[in-house]
Amino acid sequence: MNKYAGTPLDQRKLKRDKIFMTSYVPKLRYRWDTGEAIGRYLQELRQGRLIARRCDGCRRIMIPPRMFCERCFRPTDDWVYLNDTGRILTFSLCYVTWDVRRLKQPQIPAVIEIDGASPGMGILHLVKKVPPKQVRVGMAVRAVWRKPSQRRGSVTDISHWEPDNPTKETG
Amino acid sequence: MSRRRVAVIGAGMTKFMHRALETPKELAWLAVQSALGSSQLKLKQIDCVVLGTAPDAFDGVHMKSEYLSDGCGGWRKPFLRCYVGGGTGVYAVAQAWFQVASGMFDTAIVVCEEKMSTCQPHPQAAFLTIFDPITEQPLKPNLLWIFALEQTRYMETYGISVEEIARVSVKNKRNALNHPAAQLGAELTVEDVLASEIMAWPVHRLMVSPTSDGAAAVVIAAEEVARRVTDKPIWIQGVGWCLDTAYWTNRDLAYPEYVEKAAWMAYRMAGIKEPRKEINIAEPYDPFAYKELHHLEGLQLAPKGQAPKLLADGVFDREGDLPVTPSGGLLGVGNPIAAAGMMKICELFWQLRGEAGKRQVPGKPERGVAQAWGDLMQVGTVVVMGTKRPE
């Protein structure tokens, strides 16, 4: 037997229908319940607010909120409202969609550290309304909310994040 | 704690390829057959079988382990499937080590298989559900995001350039030219890598490992058996693994602390105090170019932020002071998820025996470390192997 066995399929043969195969498209639907902490998180998002949970064990203010602290392994203690501003911890300029279609204008996914949460507490979201080349780690950004009538209790109730107006930072 | 010494006594793998004619079960069979041949044991001499394989969604076969078990040599044997995403290939060896070290079994097959080409239109879709269904999936994320976000954070924290990262692709794809099972060996320059399409800045296409079909396997045995069947056992000196929180946006992505914890678990067991001086070869997980550097730092083989400099100085070349990924890695040999980690274990086996052919690193290496990574950027799995019998 060949030491490194295996038969790479030849693309030309595939085109000439020389390889038999069968296919299947699963038809599955899922419904995810939010649970306590994320349920409240989504409810507050619909009101245009960001909310976190505080743990009195490690004193972290955590977003996304959670009903138990994974480090202290005890119940978290209270709800804490946060500002809808923050800083870019890291970002990418992504030219590919999930199904590997190419984009001319990149999407800008980012981890945004939320003002009022503990240092390093970020959420995943999208940055827009900024030339891609100008995005920087550490950039101050603010949430741009959908109109109240369009909010559904989803992370997409925040349409995106955009650079914060510097004059607002003095407060 | 009383535990038995365990050695790897055989290794084998299939070609890694974009799309294989063989079914997942046939791929597993080919790898196991090759590993058994290398160990000179017959299947009837094998006491138990451990399988590592990643999401069922790739093959579209639910409870894939039951489906694969025949190909693994699992017929009427104690059989175990273990799985920690991309970290599975190295983790599987640690889980099989338990079976033998505990005294329960004398021999085990450890096999890892993945057939990603089955998933249409692209296996990337199978990765989508690793993101949180409520707080992340509505943003329509893709897998490139998390790698690009982590790479940006790594570069920003330590002032690393994209050119420095690109050198990993150049080295690994060049090393893979000497691997007979490799899918993507190539002679490239840093300029070639940077001229390749930007997928998700700062990640270029040639910094990303391919999707692959393939399988790899090893045979392990307790000392008494290993001594009887070979005069070149490669000892499993240490195993370690560690899982960080799934709240990945709450972690500092610049440094993989969970890899450090896993590494020290394995190093303590192996009696290693100064990893940089006591390890001769490393096979860190390299699904993306920056990950090799990130992981070398987690493995304590480079100071934080300094791996790119050591790479540029040639330290990690095959003839360098610490050869890193002499196999060619995931970037060069290919990335059938779980099988890719197992390929790294096979590489250490061949290198430490002096049987790596054109890939052989000079200087008779005595000890190597293999590491894999996965789940939602949160697991580190580490195995230390060497020519010297553990204390």
Brief account:
The complex is a heterodimer of chains A (171) and B (391). By secondary structure, chain A is mainly β. Chain A has helices at residues 11-15, 35-46, and strands at 50-54, 61-62, 68-69, 74-75, 78-82, 85-91, 93-96, 102-107, 109-114, 122-126, 140-145, 158-163.
Describe the structure.
Chain A is mostly beta strands and about 170 residues long. Helices cover about 10% and strands about 35% of the residues of chain A. Chain A contains 2 helices and 12 strands, in the order ααββββββββββββ. The termini of chain A are far apart. Chain B has a single domain (about 5-120, about 210-385), classed as Peroxisomal Thiolase, Chain A, domain 1. Chain B contains 15 helices and 11 strands. Chain B has helices spanning about 25-40, 55-60, 65-70, 90-100, 125, 145-160, 160-175, 190-195, 225-230, 255-270, 275-280, 290-300, 305-310, 330, 335-355; strands spanning about 5-15, 50, 80, 105-115, 200, 205, 215-220, 235-245, 280-285, 365-375, 380-385. In chain B, helix 7 packs across helix 12 (about 290-300). Chain B starts with 5 loop residues before the first strand and ends in a 5-residue tail after the last strand. The mean pLDDT of chain B is about 95. Chains A and B meet through helix 2, strand 6, strand 7, strand 9 and strand 10 of A and helix 1, helix 6 and strand 5 of B.
